């Protein structure tokens, strides 16, 4: 009976590592690259929130790439890459924690921007503009303003990790050097990277959903009590444009809330399992649970593109436009490169030095 159970566990691990994860990495990288290209288009980038979505997609791509070196290749070759490279020994966990922190705070900033847009629409342009968004992502103003730059916060939160491991040249092995420091700093990092964003995400998403429901009810009531002649008067192009913009904004909000909920559900099991292992002080972790929680993490990075496509008509429309532009450009390039008979050429396409020959 025990042998059967172990065989089933090994089968689950093998399916996750050799089938699910490679597909997730391949599809996820392509999907996130397409998401970046769509969000960078003119009709999308005018919404400030998509700058955070671009950062989230970049961190997803890099996080999926690290899974190849941390899980897939070591299991395929039967040895850890941390034992092969001094650099990877010190920085394999650092990159994973840094990119996870970037993803967490990108999703949190998305929810904050949506909260301003839905709950405080008249103050949204004042507090959340392109300048503040860019400062939040990439600027650095020193230790006095860490909250204005979550990239530096994520870097600082992850900086301790390379100093807790050591590479022994004699045995060619990467070993944990400071277990106590690793445990204490790891718990603090889990709280800052996962627990705090999770709590704020839950609160903000609840407030946003409640406000959207209230706004929809108030709008329906106001429309129903308007006199018929006032309804006709207010049915102008301006009113239609405002209504259309409101529908687009609600559509974007619904899409990004779905991404936030998916992020919370699929990434939270791994830090909970890690905390459980550290609190119980177990020397050997359960490989099946570890691989399953990691698979859920990487599935989260993969599924964002499909959520954008399913939940947002604006995203789908811009994606179709992008492919049509690429197709039209390729067709035009092929037509320009194709040889034409001289008598069928347009005179405007003939070089000036050749016109004398006509």
TrEMBL record:
It is a multi-pass membrane protein. The keyword Membrane applies. One of its GO terms (cellular component) is plasma membrane. The keyword Cytoplasm does not apply. Pfam families: 7tm_1 (PF00001). Residues 31-308 form the G-protein coupled receptors family 1 profile domain. One of its GO terms (molecular function) is G protein-coupled receptor activity. Keywords: G-protein coupled receptor, Membrane, Receptor, Transducer, Transmembrane, Transmembrane helix. Its main location: membrane. The chain crosses the membrane at residues 12-37, 49-73, 93-116, 181-208, 252-276. It is found in: Membrane. Belongs to the G-protein coupled receptor 1 family. This is G-protein coupled receptors family 1 profile domain-containing protein. It comes from Rotaria socialis.
